[in-house]
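Aim 2 progress update. The chain analyzed this quarter is reproduced below.
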Amino acid sequence: MARIIKFEKNDCAPCAQVSAYLDNKGIAYETINPFDEPELAVKFKVRTVPTVIVVDNDEIKNRIIGFKPEELDQIAL
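Predicted structure tokens:
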């Protein structure tokens, strides 16, 4: 089963937009602050926030950087 991970930081307006969008669509996701968990940021090669990653069996299936509603619609599982 695929899971969605959203990398964000506090006081990031685009991060809040992504959260609100996913919540509004009823899309479940995990939230990770890459500054609190740098090892996960390195593992998933996250360089900027917000970054949304779809992972299935430890393989990255999709990566969305920034607030892009048209791309976020594609990850609705």
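The chain has a mean pLDDT of 94. The beta strands are 3-7, 30-32, 51-56, 59-65. These observations will guide the mutagenesis experiments scheduled for the next reporting period.
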